[in-house]
Amino acid sequence: MTLLLLIAIPLCGGFLAWLLGRFHADAPRWISLAALGVGFILALDLGLEHWGAAGLANDNLWLLEYSHAWIPRFGISFHLALDGLNLLMVVLTFLIGILAVGCSWKEISTRVGFFHFNLMWVLAGVVGVFLAIDLFLFYFFWELMLVPMYFLIGIWGHEKRIRAALKFFIFTQASGLLLLLAIVALAFSHQSTSGVLSYNYMELLGTPLSEAAGMWMMLGFFIAFAVKLPVVPLHTWLPDAHTEAPTAGSVILAALMLKTGAYGLIRFVVPLFPDAAMAFAPIAMTLGVIGILYGAILAFAQTDLKRLVAYTSVSHLGFVLLGVFAWNELALQGVVMQMICHSFSTGALFVLVGALYERTHTRDLSRLSGLWAVAPKMGAMAMFFAMASLGLPGLGNFLAEILVLAGAYPVSIPLTALATVGLIFATIYSVRLVSRAFHGVNEGSWEFSDLSLREAAVLGVMVVGLIWLGLYPQPVLDAAAPTLSHLLSVMQR
Amino acid sequence: MNPIPMEQSLMVAAMLFSLGLIGLLVRRNVIFMLISIEIMLNAAGLAFVVAGSHWQAADGQVMFLFIITMAAAEVAIGLALVLRLQSDLPTLDVDAMDQLKGGDDA
Amino acid sequence: MLNYLALLPTLPLVGFLILTAFGKSLSKRSVVAIGVGSMALAAMLTIGIAIHFLSAPPPGHVFEQHLWTWFQVGDLAPGFSLYLDALSLAMILVITLVGFLIHLYSAEFMRDDDAYARFFAYMNLFVSLMLILVLADNLLLLYLGWEGVGMCSFLLIGFWYKKPENSKAAQKAFIVTRVGDTAMAIGLFLLITQLGTLDIQELGVRASEKWPVGSGMAVAAAALLLGGAVGKSAQLPLQTWLPDAMAGPSPVSALIHAATMVTAGVYLIARTHALFALAPVVLTAVMLIGLLTQLTAGISAVHQRDIKRILAYSTISQLGYMFFALGVSSNGAAINHLMTHACFKATWFLAAGAVIIAVNHEHDIFKMGGLGKKLPVLFWTMFFAGCGPFFSKDGILAEVWFSDTGGPFLWLLGLFGVFVTSIYLFRLLFTVFLGPLKNDVHWKPGLAITIPLVILATGSVVGAIVEYPRLLGYHPYATGTEAAHASPYLHAAIGKIAVGVALAGIYVAYRLFVRHKHYEAGEVVVPHITLRMRRLFAAGWYFDRAYHAAFVVPFQATSRFLRSELIDRGYDAVVALVQTGHRQIRRSQTGRLRWYAAGIAVGAVFCLGAVLL
Amino acid sequence: MNTTDLIALSPLLIVGLSAVAILLLISLRRNHRAVATLALGGLALAMASIPQAAAVAPHHIAPLMMADGYALFYSALLLAASFVVGLLSFDYLEQRGEQREEYYVLLLLATLGGLVLVGANHFVSLFLGLEILSVAIYVMVAYARSSPLAAETGIKYLILAGTSSAFMVFGMALVYAQTGTLEFGPMAAQLMQMEDFGLALPGMAMMLVGVGFKLAVVPFHMWTPEVYQGAPVPVTAFVATVSKGAMFALLLRFFAAFEADEAQPIMNILGLLAIASMLAGNLLALLEDNVKRLLAYSSIAHLGYVLVAFLAESSFGDEAVTFYLVAYFISTLAAFGVISVLSDGKSEADRMEDFRGLYWRRPMLATLMTAALLSLAGIPLTTGFVAKFAVVAAGVKAALWVPVFALALGSAIGLYYYLRLVVVMLSPVNPTDDSNSEATATDDAMSTRAPNPAILRPKKVPIGPAFALSILAIFLLGLGVLPTPLMDFIKSSVSELR
Q1: What φ, ψ does residue C368 adopt, rounded to 5°?
Q2: pLDDT at A56
Q3: 3-state helix, strand and coil shares in percent for chain C, rounded to the nearest 5
């Protein structure tokens, strides 16, 4: 029941925000904040309740389950379940949601109610994706989060918002159709062997599939997740969408939506199709490495700050792909860490760029220089997150990447070496970002106020998060460990 | 007298039908197009009558009656529309009716 | 006392945190109190620890302090654990003592800077991370410190961020060292995969159990770690960042780019010597890298005009000596040189910084002269400090002569380096301080500058007499040198030769730069080498230019080429295709009735054809 | 004819009688409101009689009609759609001072034709139903006499429909010549005993022309945009829903009687038609600027989707077909309903620019329109999503990979134009308000034109359409979240088919 609440809270909160937005502009903000706060506390409480050894180390994989018949004709049920892995993701979702509301407090001044409605519904969709354990339901939420996101970009975005929103939608939706086909095909394959039509993940695990069928279905899943992740060459929607979205949109996109792709890879692609996935692993890992390098080089090439940050996402999430298909404990823990840490580091960079844009109305790196003198706090924050992004030890991203690479090393040394070269590239673009914008002479004669308390608070949370993850990530690792070992054991069967 | 085989009669019907269709395609006058449709319908009616006689059943003839009736109704409406159209366009040339081709090069 | 070990990195870290959080609102006096005070406490604590360690050695002469487990995934569980032995004791002594003195110096040197608090914050952070680096008991924690000091180096080189070239230099330093670090990271993955641990002591044990001497894995592991060391310690081929790094304030150059951070590579090799011992090939490589670096950098140093660049090349060259020593497994000699050099080079950099201020931010030594009378303290501290390292270098040369892998030929090459060293050092000293006065000097160093200089110079001189590491109980020397100790005369004779060569160098420098004043004609040392050669030496053997052509240009070209996102053109093509499809098929909607009727007829023909054919 | 027959036929009878009653009423006194009330009352009554009819189902009204659960389900669907069209028509006609009353006779007659079609079990009833439907639509399409396009639309539709009817009838004759029966059941039984279909196969192929025309699948689709555009909006809605739905119901019943293998050549043709429709329909709609034409093109594609489920030839597929048609009805009616409400006495709101900034002018209507479009695009929370899922499931289950991939491809293309309309609705009302002109320039045609000023004027949605639209909205979203009741109902209804 609590699981249902976790989805219902943002849904209802969003609706309420929309309704009350007609009366007062601040109402939606406070309502969203309150709703997300409640959700966060609820999720955190669930976490703490089950954090003890008894909860997570339990034989039963799920800490909590909620199931209700939905469309029995197709064997579909409204089936949610919680384990350590998606618990982490849900907590993260609410936290990022709160930060997103915080960072858009001043930025969004038109149609505030509708904005928050969409924001909350995206979050509800994301939570749903993480919790759904019925594949149809998963697909339902997967698609559900697109429309409000489309509105977020299309209404409150920047100059080329329409094109970007369309591109985002069509890429994800088109790949989503392949996912749908694969899901349906899998369910029917399962039916033909077991006689039961079911979309229940736990039942579909271990469905015997012919080599070709398994590969096709795996590709259906993979492509959908690869678009979201995004994997080069399916990534081109991402820079556009990121660049044009309002700050909160970029934050949610980078911090949460991309993670649904990563989550899908871990949860579904490999466990459901172990043979096909292993056969495909070399290609996938190569794609991951290409993503790491390509994203980094393109990040270096950008002059638009938001585009730059967007490409860093491409680069960072290449590690996720690499790690998932390396498929061992080190790599998977690294992937989980990367999912969380990237949310903070890239989310924060988007918040910073957004704050900068609010003040200067430009994101053009060639017009910004010497801003340290104007806004040292901002500079320090940018420096911090740039360092996080280049994988400075002591911050979460470092551990994530190191774990992924250490896990990938026994699988493929050349790919690992190339991916490690990506760290150099990451250094290049991160350092360039800070140096260009904040160092040098203030040629544009910019004058503006430094970070406000609200912005500093939003960023501060992320700073603390990254340091904590960098120095003592054990709670996160412990939370994910039972799920991961279960998934690993699926593979061995 | 041997009855004419059904296949041959059907051939006649088919030829009639084809004639109607060709008429429909080559004539630009609306009235003639309506007539062509009548021919096609009547060809179908003929086929029904032929088949009915082959099976020694009344079904074919019943069907033919229905066809004639509907054809009449269709023509009635068709002619009414032609009259309406006449007031807008001083021609019966169907190729002149292209106000509805829509967007791009309109 | 040893139990307070964890406090050591914490003290400067706290300083950093306070200065970062409240830096803006603190007065300069309180900034000094926090920034320098934390260092003073750390230095005192270090001395206390050292005394305790020497007077009441812990069992096995090793003290370990486990703080918390960093993370645990499977069997891999690196901890935040500190490891103190003679080697790390030597290092923390250098870091905190030299560090404290440099902080003290900075309190006066940086007084007029607006970003006083930021400077001390960075410096404190650096010291803290450097301490973590040398105290780490596992390679991952070491790597944390390793990368952390790299970042601080980046921050401090670019400290005066308003000048774009400073920022460029900072980026270069960071990126070039990251290249080495990448190799090191891959080395870590190899060790994790092969040996399942990153604990340094455990690594040594497992490696020697698992890998025979000279096995491929051992060579790979050692070579990859060497990559990191080469980058950090500015050895060939990753030395190019250090001369540019002089863009930072002089105390930064003194602390980071002379005394401590750049020696991290030396420390790493000494620390993981167990691995290197399994890979003699790599050790030879270390030796050759050291030798080559030492010679090339020394020759370049002779051809520099910028006072700080001379010192930078000198640092590279001296680090080369340390690698030279490491290459013959004479870690003791390397560390000895490291410590002496730290005192010596810190003195010189600090003094150079003072000189630069005194002559109104002039860097060209040929635009200075006769400052000895105006700034005698600087001259004499530099002079005495300059003598120290010759003796520690003699130690290295003797080790090379006697070691199994070295020998007289390598010794001879090393000896040539000594000669070059004395030329460039005294070229600088003579040009700046002797001869006619060329500059107005309005500024005299105060106590906060003089005292550190004097202490450091003393440290260097003392280093010429006593071997610091031996004092601390760290004396692993090259194999084969026992024989040398058996024949002390030869050993002493070899030392004397080196001193003689050094004196010869000084004499040459004196002849060229005081007597004949060749510098007035054009900064030449050896008058007869061609201009092209001179340019080659002055530009650091064109490494920069080569790297620019080999890496920077292709990278930029690739990024420019890809900037327009070629992949997107593919999707554009799909869009265009669909649109073309739309336009083509749209043409079928002609609005003409007969055309539509024909469509139906065609459809009918198709249907009939499909069933009949 | 006994009482049971009468009860089973009661929906048809009520609709027919209502038509007669309206004729009588008109001859007495012209009163739009009264006539409309009578017509809607008749439709409602007919719907209310369905449970009674269901009580005696399945019942043969020998040999012409079949009143089984399947027929009654589709009857209810058609009646409901007609009812909605009626509600929309009243206000639409009210704004145009023409002779409005006869329209309802036609509406009822067309509905009657549809009802006959869905119950048809015999070539005679098929032909009768089809022609009653068609003839009524000829007139309805050209009903707006003031419109310059009306007569052209009418003539075009008439001639093409007539041609296709001729094909159909000739095809029926051939089938009859081969089998000697006009009744579906015996016909199938007869054919299955034969070695080969002989004349029946070309006969069926020719019948497909007639079917394809009504369903507007490629290549019989070319009339659609013109009729959709030229006809009054409520009539367009009717043509898009009732006429197609009835024909599809017939198609399903006719082929359900055949075993899979024998009709294979026909199925192959339908498969090709389906693929062509999905691709061509979506491509045609891609950059269309007239919303009615856009919906016309999209309907071509949608019928292609339904055909995929049809091709599955299983009761699973039948359910999917039926569910999809319900979803299609709801979404299409909602979309046309919005257009109808936005239209005024002079012109119809069918240009892209008329929808510009609709979110900020008429948020409720815009939201409904968006929901309808998203439903057509198959996005979750709308019934179209579940429907598309059902169709895909049926297709995948029958391993119809090529059509299913064409469906996926078509849907992906389709997103573009649905979203394009959504984008226009999101844009600022006045194009000059838009500081960055690129924002709306997804293409050139619509970006600069301002909406028709009359359409900008806010007006209250009249009670009839408001009622209709709210019901549609509830179903549109409700069935997207809780499809199970309807699904179960459909399952029990279509189970008798095979």
Answers
A1: -115, 170
A2: 47
A3: 80, 5, 20
Judge whether D146 is closer than 8 Å to chain B, CB to CB. no
d(CA C365, CA C430): 10
Say which residue the tokens 């700046």 belong to.
Answer: C432
Confidence of residue A377 (pLDDT cuts 50, 70, 90): confident
* pLDDT tens profile C88-133: 888 999 999 999 999 999 888 888 888 888 889 999 999 999 999 9
Query: Which has the closest alpha carbon to D36: D91, D95, D81, D111?
Result: D91
Are B and A touching by the rule of 3+ CB pairs within 8 Å?
Answer: no
Q: Which residues of C touch A368 (CB under 8 A)?
A: none
Domains in chain B (CATH in brackets) are 30-90 (1.10.287.3510)
pLDDT digits (tens, 9 = 90+) for A122-180: 999 999 999 999 999 999 999 888 889 998 998 888 888 888 888 899 899 889 999 99
D370: closest chain A residue by CA: A147
By residue count, chain D amounts to: 498
Residues near A446 by beta carbon (within 8 Å), at least 6 away in sequence: A359, A360, A368, A370, A371, A374
C38's tokens: 């934390």
Chains in touch with B (3+ beta-carbon pairs under 8 Å) read C, D
**Which secondary structure element, helix H or strand E, spans residue A67, and what is its range?**
strand A64-71
Q: What local confidence, expressed as pLDDT, does residue C55 receive?
A: 87
Please choose, from the candidates D186, D69, D205, the residue with its C-alpha nearest in 3D space to the C-alpha of residue D123. Answer: D186
Using only C-alpha atoms, what is the Rg of chain B?
A: 18
Can you tell me the ipTM of this complex? 0.89
> CA-CA distance, C276 to C273, in Å (whole number)?
5
Domain ranges of chain A: 2-492
**Chain D contact for B24, CB < 8 A?**
yes
D205/C585 touch (CB, cutoff 8 Å), yes or no: no
Chain C contact present for B95, CB below 8 A: yes
Q: What is the C-alpha to C-alpha distance for residues D198 and D178, in angstroms, rounded to an integer? A: 7
Does D have 3 or more CB contacts under 8 Å with C?
Answer: yes
Q: D447 pLDDT band (50/70/90 cuts)?
A: very low
- What confidence category does residue A316 fall into, taking pLDDT thresholds of 50, 70 and 90? very high
Cβ within 8 Å, pair B94-C594: yes
Is pLDDT of D415 > 60?
A: yes
Interface of D with C (CB under 8 A): 155-156, 159-160, 163-164, 167, 201-202, 204-206, 208-209, 212-213, 219-220, 222-223, 225-226, 265-266, 268-269, 272, 280, 283-284, 286-287, 413
Phi-psi region at D228: left, alpha or beta (left = phi > 0; alpha = psi -120 to 50): alpha
Paired tokens of A444: 């544009």
Q: What is the distance between the alpha carbons of residues A270 and C452, in angstroms, rounded to a whole number?
A: 62
What is the pTM for the complete model shown? 0.91
Nearest to B101 among C583, C590, C597 (CB): C590
Mean pLDDT of chain B: 85
Cα–Cα distance measured from residue D319 to residue D325, given in angstroms and rounded to the nearest whole number = 10
Q: How far apart are CA C78 and CA D442, in angstroms?
A: 55
Residue D229: is its pLDDT beyond 60? yes
D112 and D42 Cβ atoms separated by less than 8 Å: no
Strand partners, D60: D66
Q: Which two tokens stand for residue B11?
A: 């051939």
Residue C519's pLDDT is 53
Determine if residue D22 is left, alpha or beta; phi over 0 gives left, psi from -120 to 50 gives alpha, anything else beta. Answer: alpha
d(CA A425, CA A390): 8
Q: What is the pLDDT of residues D70-82, one digit of tens each?
A: 999 999 999 999 9
Contact between A279 and A212 (Cβ < 8 Å): no
A444 phi/psi in degrees, rounded to 5? -80, 0
Distance CA C611, CA D203 (A): 10
